[in-house]
Each structure stands twice: as C-alpha cells, then as structure tokens.
C-alpha cells in the first residue's frame, strides 16, 4: 500500500488558508492528514511582512506538526505555488550540500496557477504597478496605469491575451477571505521577493515529482511547457473552464487531480 503523505496547503496572494476548505475536507475524508497555512502578511499572520524566508518558516512549522518519519506533499496556488516550488528547490539543495543527514521528507509538489516565470519582465513590471499604487497620489495612479499598460503589453509579447482579469490573477483572485484582505503593500513585498527568482529553475532543482495544475482560462499559463520539461518527474493538468483560482473555480475537478497526485506521491 505504501506510506500516504501528509498534506500542507499554501494559499495565493491576498487570500488566506480559507481558500482550501473544500480541499481540506476532501483529503481528510480520504484519510490524509492535512493542514492549510497562512503565509506572512495574510490571515492570522496579517501583522507580519511577507518574505520568502518567512514563508519557508511557516511551511517548516507546518511540516513539524506531523510525525518525523511522515512524507510531506505540498500543494500551492499562485504565490503559494511559487513558494512551494522554491521550498522544494531549497530542500534539494540542502540535502545535496550535506547540510542535513536526514532523508528528505518531501514526497511531491502540486503547483497550481504558477507557470509564468517570475524572473521575466511581466512580474517586474507588475511590481512597479504595486509600488506606485501604494503611494496613493493621483500622479502615482497615472504612473500605475502606464506601468499596467506596459505589463499587459509584455504579457501579449509572451503569447497571452492580457486583460483586466490578469491583474486580478496576480493579486490572488476574488475568493472571499473574511473581513480582512491584505493591501497592495503585500503585493509589493511578494513581487520584490519573486522578481528575479526563476520558478523554472526551482522545478528543475526539485528532486521530487511536480504536478502542474492550471485553469484553461488562466492568462498566466505562459510557460507551462517549459516548467513541465524542467521537471525531474512531472505532470501537467489543465482544468477546462477554470481561471486562475482553479481550486475554487472547479473544486471537484481540482480534487480529482489532487487525489491522483497524492497517489503518485505515495512512498513504498
């Protein structure tokens, strides 16, 4: 039968762990132990600033709640997807360098809605939009509109039909997350940490199976084939009719994919 992994869910930008309620119910009903975390600057951690090392600490704390010999599956959406891929790359680097003698606990990663490499121009331009929007003045808003136009043009140059929904996608979609919704300062912090950081390189560095899951209507599926080709062992699933928030746009379809992925991550 093999050893079933425990599951750690990591949400997208400007949302919270609440987006995973349907997935938590699904995997727990199937017998998996699972937890959904709040990243820094989100949910219960809303008073913190977002940093990638801080996000890694959150995942480390979640992993530590399970038995020391339990394999771990990471499931991330958008910002959470980029974070889990970077975490998997760091895990592989630590083991390769001999920084830890313990075998890796990571069994696999489901990375959703994160197949546009942040190292490219679109994310850097969108970070500029966030910076000037945080400033708040009318002149800053004019700069934001100009930067947003450059951002959409950059996306079109990479084969995407960019539109207003692309902006909402990078912000983390429109899923209700309760009375608190992080502002643009979170976007600035997150994109500052992501810009120049290659998700394709992270997929290549990770030495575990990586399942890439995208909604067919997600305009940010710019480089899904590059990500798939980089994987040590990978799969790509495109969910028909879903947008960037694929797990909430099509929860039943996403849960079916999740079931398949977790079976693939099972250890002998």
Automatic annotation (TrEMBL):
AB hydrolase-1 domain: residues covered: 7-256
Bilayer-crossing regions: none
Pfam families: Abhydrolase_6
An example molecular function term from Gene Ontology annotations: catalytic activity
InterPro entries hit by this protein: AB_hydrolase_1 (IPR000073), AB_hydrolase_fold (IPR029058)
Cited PANTHER family: ALPHA_BETA-HYDROLASES SUPERFAMILY PROTEIN (PTHR43689:SF8), HYDROLASE (PTHR43689)
Name this polypeptide is given: Pimeloyl-ACP methyl ester carboxylesterase
